[in-house]
Amino acid sequence: MKLIFLFLSYFISYTVAQQAICEFGIRNVGGVIGYSCGLSVNNPEGQTITEIGGIHLEGYTDADVQGILRINGSIETAFPAIFCQRFPNIQRALVHGLNITEITDNSFSTCTSLDWLYILSNRISSISQNAFANNQNLIHIDLDNNLLSTLPENVFGTLSNLEILDLRNNPFVEIPSGAFNGLSSLQILYMQNTRLTAINPAWFSSTSNLETLYLTNNQISQISPNTFNNLQNLISLNLNGNNIGAFQAETFSGLRNLQSLSVGGNNISEINKNSFVGLENLLTLDLSGNFFSIIRNGTFRALTNLRSLLLSNSRINDFEIDAFDGLTNLTILNLNFNLLEDLPASVFAPLRNLEYCGLWSNRIKTFRRNVFGTDLSTLLTLDLDENVVNALERSVFYDATNLNRFLFSSNFCGNGIFNGFAQNRAEFMQRLERCFRNFELIIDTVTDNNVDYLFFRGENPGIVARVQAEDEIQIALTPFNFPWSPMIEVIIGAANNTRSIIRRNQDEDVAVVPSPGIIRRNQQNLFRIVWANHVILVFRENEQWPFLVHTMIDFFNVNFYGLRTLQSRATWSIQPV
Fold first, then answer.
1. Which end of the chain is more exposed for a tag (fewer CB within 10 A), N or C?
2. Three-state SS across 542-576?
3. Class in CATH terms, 443-576
């Protein structure tokens, strides 16, 4: 049997009031050539359309018309029953953009062969309970971008063959428990941007074959643990862009076949380690755009088959040591656009199959080999773009034998995108030599109520000091590895952590600024001290402007720097600028 479409397209055609004019022809519609009709409607008063004009091509009749695609004009009322009465063998109706206001019991009652109904971008605010009672062959209904605030109970009750239902972009106030009754074949349900505040588990009592569920950009704030228990065949669940603050334990435990879970752009600050129990088949997890701060031990331990973990733009600044425990099959880790400064040793060690490690746009200063496990041969792409890296450990690039792309733009010690790294290793390693040398100059040490300074060679015109202390810290700049005159001392957090000082020759304060609370106790503090062109500059964190400045009157070469704390213990990690 011929598959023929009634093609309702925008075209210039003669129209009369309250009449639809049909221009028949054979057209290629979506790759299918068929007998088609373009309708132009003129109905400014929203009256009932009682006529369809037009002349068939020779050899064709109304019975040959099997599709409606896009009407020109405006109906301004319920979808007219005359279309299905005139063309009873319609299989596809694409009637978007007509300002249709409702679907009644009669709108499609005689279109018993209808399998696709695209009625999007209208003004439909009402659908009668029996609107689809005679349309048991429907496979796809698209009601996107209308004005629906509710649905009748059992409105789809006869549609046991329906596979796709699109309800997105409607201002729903309430969807009754039985709205989706009868949809035993439903595979895809779109409910994005529908103002939902909660998910009713009863919606899914008849949809056990659902495979894809979109609930994006709603106002859902919580999900009860039994919500998805009847969706054991669900493969993809998208909850991006809601107001979810937390998951209860075993929220997704009934989704044993789920492969993709997206919960980005919510308000999640911490994940219960049992939230993902039952998701052994999950392949992709998107948690981007949340507010985690720290990833706790064992968070993802249940996700033994996970391949892709997306945690970008989530304000993460720390990991517990076993944060990624159990993710032995992970190949993609996206931590871009976070607040990471330090990566704990062995934090990526469980990721034995990691291919992409994304750390773009964080605050990483030093990148060490020990963040990974023993085998780096699977790593193909390492992204450190737009950090503040000033030191790289050379062995990372020796051990990543198959590294293809190293993204390193806008860092302190280097800048560039290195494609084909494995093939151009010698050249690229040479270009990164400054970063490697800086790493070799890193000093990790402790000062403990020391009267004397611990001195180290200062080959570069500055240092980055990461220090954890309880009280003021002091850095000396001298030409020799012992106190001398001339000498400059930088004292940060003096006078009970209220001010900072630059002192000349151990007795003259040449710069003093208020700096209350500048030493944050029980956490790492970052300072940059730069000496160049007769000027001493002291910066806090990654700030652009120094908070402490001094121009030296008697210039001397700074060849050494000293570290000490007079009244407390401090741990230091120093690297050259």
1. N
2. CCCCCCEEEECCCCCCCCEEEEECCCCEEEEEEEE
3. mainly beta
